[in-house]
Each structure stands twice: as structure tokens, then as C-alpha cells.
Amino acid sequence: MLDLTGKNALVTGIANNRSIAWGIAQQLHKAGANLGITYLSDDKGKMERKVFELVEPLNPSLFLPCNVQNETEIQSTFAEISSKWNKLDILIHCLAFANKDDLSGDFSQTSRSGFNTALEISTYSLIQLAGAAKPLMTEGGSIVTLTYLGGVRAIPNYNVMGVAKAGLEASVRYLASELGQQNIRVNAISAGPIRTLASSAVGGILDMIHHVEQVAPLRRTVTQTEVGNTAAFLCSDLSSGITGQVLYVDAGYEIMGM
């Protein structure tokens, strides 16, 4: 029933085989979507090679550098999409970053530069990419981003990223309100803690995972594949009436009081 054949999907944020974005890309491919993959370029091309080798089995028709702190690269990415695909149906936003020093210690000591960096990459980038995608979603579309419980509750060692995720979730609602007139839906998935390159910067991530396994109704945490399945659902016609929402994929942990 879940069929994305004929849909063009741009996936951002793949760093390695533990990335949630990688789990999403695999499930979109499985559902028949035509994939475009972006990567964060570096001077030595190490990340480009690493990501390309990983995604090659998915046969992406576009493979592009896209640093969201570089406006030229964003424009180039969407110009290439327009040229090669003519339209975009799906945008997957899996981008988040904060300086490690701003993820621990007293939140009141968050540096100005650290705050700006976290909000620019983790929050504003969704607005940037949605704005660039809007003219290309001529037949409607679906935008999906990743958030975390730390956006609505105080989580140890999350600090400024919690503020960034709160802003991200608010952005989902405002974008959904704007883009709904073009039949473009915008939603977020709040995934339970998964050991990824990004989450490794959060102190005590393994303790967080073990805690979820003990407390969550399903007595476990979740996998990249489970998050990927939810993303594929949100990108399909099966979720045509859903927009502006945060869907929790966390084995039920969010409902628990203790």
C-alpha cells in the first residue's frame, strides 16, 4: 500500500550507517522513491567518499554537496534539482549541530556564538530548505524533519539543542500553515535516543538509552528502520491528512510520568 514510485525525494543529513537519515533513505528507496542525497563537503573530500560508498546501493540520481551555512551551495542544490528532476515531492531534513561545550554544564553559560550556531544549523536550516523546495513542489509534497523530546522537556546534557528543537517544532507548525495552501505537508518525527554520530556528542547517551529500555512501555528503544518507516508513511498518500504534527517514535517513552 505504501508506494512512493515516481516521487523525487531529497535526503539530507547522512553521515554514516548509524545516521537516522540513512534509515529513512533506505525505506524511501524500498518504497520506490527516486533519491537525491546531500552531503557535507570537506577540503579532503573524505565525507563525500564515505557517504557515496554508503548510498551507492540505493542508486541516487542526484548526489550533491549542501552545507546549510553556505547559501551558494543551497541555491546550487535546488537549481540542480530543478534542472534534473523538474519537481520535488519529498524533503527530508535531518540536520542538527551544537558545539560540544554547549551541551553540558550550566545552560546559562551558553555562548552567544554557540547559541547562534546551534539555531542556524538545527532550526533555521529547515526554514531555508523549505523555502527553496516550495517552488519545486508543484504537485504538493511532504517535508519531514527530526526532533527530540528535549525540545519540550529538560533533558540532561541537551541544553542549547533543546532550545533548537523547540524552535524546530514551532517552525514545523508555521511552515505547515503557510505551505498547506499548496498541498505541501510539514511534519516532525520525535525519535527516541539512538546511538548516532550526532547523539554521541550528548553526554551519557548510553545511560539515556538504557533508561528508555527500562521505562518505555515497549521496554526498548527504537531503530533507524522504525523511524524510516514512519518517515516513509509521512511522505506517502497514506498520511495525506496529517500536517503540522510531531509524531513520537520512541517506544512510548513520551507518555510516561515516571
From TrEMBL:
Active site residues according to the UniProt entry: Y148, Y158
Keywords assigned: Fatty acid biosynthesis, Fatty acid metabolism, Lipid biosynthesis, Lipid metabolism, NAD, Oxidoreductase
GO biological process, one term: fatty acid biosynthetic process
Record Pfam families: adh_short_C2
Broad class of enzyme this protein falls into: oxidoreductase
Entry-linked PANTHER family: ENOYL-[ACYL-CARRIER-PROTEIN] REDUCTASE, ENOYL-[ACYL-CARRIER-PROTEIN] REDUCTASE [NADH], CHLOROPLASTIC
Name of the protein in question: Enoyl-[acyl-carrier-protein] reductase [NADH]
